[in-house]
Fold this sequence. Notes:
With about 180 residues, the protein is an alpha/beta fold. The chain has 7 helices and 9 strands, in the order E-H-E-E-E-H-E-E-H-E-H-E-H-H-E-H. The protein has one domain (about 5-180): P-loop containing nucleotide triphosphate hydrolases (Rossmann fold), CATH 3.40.50.300. The model has no long low-confidence stretch (mean pLDDT about 90).
Amino acid sequence: MTRLVVLAGPTAVGKGTLVRALRDRNPDIWLSVSATTRAPRPGEIDGEHYHFVSDQEFSRMIEHGELLEWATVHGTHRYGTPRAAVLEHLEAGHPSLLEIDLQGARQVRASMPEALFVFVEPPSMDELVRRLVGRGTEDDLERERRLRTAEVEMAAAREFDRIIINDDLDAAVRHLETIVLDPT
């Protein structure tokens, strides 16, 4: 069985950008599609970016043990990783990647300690704020909530097996590529 790589880091650190660049270079790397109770952002496609589900459906998934991990993120919406798809890809030997939050990473560590845990850090908190404001997808209240969460997440970076500082996209992608394709 291939080892699962779990990627986490604070909001706006560039996890999604890193993963897209990695998969552009290595389309055989499988990325789990999370379920979420939040509404789609403009351009997001159900089943491709997330599985957008109701609160009731998410609760049913929890009750039936269908999620490897789940969490309420930023105090508002729930996100989770469908268990069956992860196990299927690992058993098939596909390089497999989860892009999740800190709470989820901790749950995966409890149930799959053999996974490799990678934390993505910004070069500085000022840069993280610049990136969050620059993407323009959150209002002021949501940005403040996400920055408070980011501070907590940054303090937990040392819980992870590897750390990637996302200050140079190409270098960060190469680092992540090495980790995913040869996690020893």
